[in-house]
Design goal:
GMP Synthetase, Chain A, domain 3, Rossmann fold, homodimer, 16 helices, alpha/beta, 24 strands, five-stranded antiparallel sheet, 3 domains
Amino acid sequence: MTYREFHRRVLSLCVRFRDEGVSKGAGVALIHHNCHVVLEAYFATAALGAVFVPINTLYSAREIGAVLADCDPRLLIAARSFLERSRSALGALSTPGDPPRLLSSETLLPPPGVPAYPATDACAAPHSMPHSGESLHPLPLEGGGDDPVQLYYTSGTTGAPKGVILTHNNVATHALAAIAELGLSEKDVWLHAAPLFHLADAWATWAITWVGGRHVVLPRFETSAAFDTIAREGVTITNLVPTMLTRLVHAPEADAGKLQSMRLILSGGAPMALELLKRIEALFPCPYVQTYGLTETSPYLTLSLPKQSIERLPAETQQAYRAKTGRPMLGVELRVIDANGRDVPRDGSSVGEVVVRGPTVTPGYFKQPEATAAAFRDGFFHTGDLAHVEPEGYLTIVDRIKDVINTGGEQVYSTEVENALYAHPAVEEAAVIAVPDDEWGEAVKAIVVLCSAAEAHEAELIDFCSNRLGSFKVPSSIELRNHLPRTGSGKIDKKALRTPFWQGHRKGVH
Amino acid sequence: MTYREFHRRVLSLCVRFRDEGVSKGAGVALIHHNCHVVLEAYFATAALGAVFVPINTLYSAREIGAVLADCDPRLLIAARSFLERSRSALGALSTPGDPPRLLSSETLLPPPGVPAYPATDACAAPHSMPHSGESLHPLPLEGGGDDPVQLYYTSGTTGAPKGVILTHNNVATHALAAIAELGLSEKDVWLHAAPLFHLADAWATWAITWVGGRHVVLPRFETSAAFDTIAREGVTITNLVPTMLTRLVHAPEADAGKLQSMRLILSGGAPMALELLKRIEALFPCPYVQTYGLTETSPYLTLSLPKQSIERLPAETQQAYRAKTGRPMLGVELRVIDANGRDVPRDGSSVGEVVVRGPTVTPGYFKQPEATAAAFRDGFFHTGDLAHVEPEGYLTIVDRIKDVINTGGEQVYSTEVENALYAHPAVEEAAVIAVPDDEWGEAVKAIVVLCSAAEAHEAELIDFCSNRLGSFKVPSSIELRNHLPRTGSGKIDKKALRTPFWQGHRKGVH
C-alpha cells in the first residue's frame, strides 16, 4: 500500500466516522489484532480531534465493558474474532445514554447485523500515478496541541481500569524525539510485532509514517513468522517485548541469516540481564537498544544508545552499557531522587525514585483527579521505579518500588536476583517475589521457567545464586513452572504471582 | 565553559531578572554582538516565561525606540558599544508607564550609572567536578507550550516594526526537528557566526544545547577569523548567510585546510546559484545544505538534504539538488498553490505560492490582528514566496511575489536572471529589480558587484545574459556598484534598491 492510498483510506474513514457522529473529543474504541486497519484508525481519529481508545486484545468481556463504561466512546470497532466478546461487553453495559455503536472492520463481508468499514474505492478517486501532480485533499486537523488524542488503559493493580490520557503534543514530540535518537528515515522498515494497542509498538505508527518509512504488520507473534517476515520484507528496526526476544533467541528455527537487514533491535519493559543481551547480540547482526518507559510518558524515558564518552570504552564495557536502562531521551527531564526530593549521587549504587517532566508526560488519568494528583509532585511525574545512576548519566532500574523485598530489614531488589538466575544456562525466565515469612517478615522466592530441553533442580539453582549474591539475597525457595503470567504489555505479572502466597496474611499484597 | 557553569549562570540571571520585576509574560529586550551572554539571556527568559526580544544590532536609535514602544519590555540589556544608542532610544520614548530599565551586560566594570549583570560567583556555589553527584537546582519552568517565548522584529517593508511571536512549542519543535534532520549530536561544534538576533543562527541555541554539543561564538564576522576559529575549535557545522559564504569563497586567505572538521555547511535566505554552490563545495570538504525559511516559521521550512531517491542519481545531479530550495522539514506541512488554492502540478515548472502549517508556524504578529489575519488563509500561513516543485517533492523558490517583474505582460522571476549573472566569473553579487518603463510598464534592471580583481562592462554582461535567457528576461540595463544594501538578516534589500527608481511614479514600489 502506498502512502497515497493510505491517505485516501484515512480520509474515507474520517468521512465514515463523522457520519457516525464522531466529532472533536468523542471516543473511538478499537479491539483488533495488528493490522493496517489499526494504523488507519490512529490517523483518522487524530485528524478528527477524536480520542482513540485501543483495547488490549487479551481483555475479557468484563474488562472491555469496564473500559467502555469508563470512557463512553461513540464507536467500538472490532475485528471479526473479537465481535462476540465485544457484543457481550456492550450487552452488559448499564451506563446512561446511547451505548457505543459496534462497527466491524471488514469491508466486503461484514458479519450480519454489524455495519462495516467503508470500501476505499467508494469514497476516493481512482488510483493515479504518484507523480501526476494530482492534489490530495489534506486531512482535517480538528484537534492538536494539548487536546487528548489517545486513551490507553493500563492493567492496573486495583480492579478499576485507569485511562492514561495522551495529547497530540505528547505523542508528536515523542515521535520526533525518537526519529532524532534512532536516526529513523525513509530507508527504515518497521515490524509491528508487539501489539499495536500498546505504546511499546504504537509510537512507531507516527514516527515511521512521519519519515516515510515502511510499516510491516505481523497479525500475531510467532517465531518462525517473525524470522521469515524480517527476511522477506527487509525489516531494519523493531521493538519487541522481552518475552518475544527470549522466544526468538531460544527458537529451534533461529536463523541469523534471516536478520541481515536489521540495523537496530529495541526492547524494554523489564531490565535486561547481560546474559540475555549477549545471546540477542549473538543472534542479531545489529546493536541492541534497551528502552525504558511508561504509558504515561508516551512511552520512552531512556534509551541505552551510546554517548560519545561510552564509545571510547572497550567493546565489552560498551555492551554492558547497552544492557543498562540507558540515558534520558531528548525531551525528557529526568531525576533520580531520595525520600527528601534530592538527587541521589551519580555513583552507580545509590538508589532513588525516577521522576520526570517534559512534553511527553501525560496530563493525567481520565476522570481520576486523585490518582493524577498522587502521581505528580513539584511538577514531576513519579514513576514508582527505583534506579541508580552511573557517573556518565546512565540509569539502571533496580526494581519497581512495590516489587522490592524487605527481608529482616534488608532491601532486596528482585531484578538483581533475577539477573543472577539468568546467568544459569538452563534458565529461560525468572521472576523473584516477596512471600510471607514468619521470622523475616518477607522471604525471597524465585519462580523459574527452564529452557525447553534443559534440566535443573531447586537446590542446584539456589547453590548457583549463593555463589553470586549476598546471603540475604539468595532465594529461600525456587519453584519451576511451565510459563509465567503476563500483563497486556508482555511484562511478567508479579502481582499475579504474589497474590496466592499472601492470601490470609495481614500485610497483603503491596 | 561547561554546561554545569552555563546552568549556574542562567540560574543567576533568572534571579537577577526576577529582582528587576521580570515575571511571566514580561518582555526582556537585548542589543548585543554575538556572545555567550546572548545564549544565557535566551535561556533565562524562557525559564521565567518571559518574552525575549533580540534587537538587530544595525538598528538606529529611532528603530530601537520603535521596537521598545511596540512591545514595552521591562528590561533592555545592552553591550557597552550599544549603550549610547540605547540611551537615546530610551530618552525619546513617549509611551505611558515606566520605560524599560537599561542593564549593562558587563559584570565587573559596568559603565557609570548603568546596573550590571550578576557576577556568577556571587550567586552560585563554587565550581565542582561534573561527576561529583552534586545536585544542580533545576531551572524554573514558568512558561511553556503555547506561551510566547520570543518576539523577533522583522525589518518590514512599511515603516512600522512588525513583531513575530514565537512560542515555546514553536522553537522547541523546530529544534527537535533540526536535530533529527541534521543528525545533530554531542559531537557537533556549532559556530555562531551569523547574528544571534536572527533565527538563521539563533535556532541552534536550543538544538545544540539540547544534544550537548559545543557552542563557539564569533563576536563579529570576518573571513580570516572565521577560517581560524573553525580550524582552532574543530567546528563541525554552521549556518552562514549567503553574503558570508560569498566572502569566504572569494577571500584571498581562503584555506580548505582550515575547514577539515566541517561535516555540513548550511545557508539560506536567498536561492543559491549553482555556480556559487560549486565554489562552496570546492572549498568546503563537506556537503552544502540549502535552507529556506522565515522568521514566522522558526525558521526552516525546507532543507536540500537528499532523499533516498536522490542518492541514487549521478553525483552532478545530486549537486544540483543541493542547490534547490529543498524538501519540507519534519513538522512542516507545505503546499504550493495556485490562485484558486489548488496544488500546482509537481512538474518542475508550474509556479505557485508556498503556504505552510504546523507546530513551527507563528501564532501571528504582536498586536497586529489585521496583519495576522491577512497572512493566514484556511489555516495555512502564506509565505509570499513563489516556487515550483519537482516530481520528487523538491521545491525551487523562484521569487518573492513582490519581486516579480512584469514587463509587457510577461512575468520575469528576478532570481532566474540573477542566476544567469552568477554564472559569469567576474560577478560576485547580483540583484535584479523592476524599474519603471514607459513602454513596458516595468523593465528588468540588474545591480551587480564584481569580484575584487575582476573587470566587466555593462554591454558584456548583457551579452552574457542574452546567450542564457529568453529575450524579455535579459536586463535592459546593468549598473555596477561596490556593494548592495542588506536587511538585518543579511539578505539583499531589493526594496531599498527599487525605491529611488520609483520615486514620482504612480505605481510606486510594491
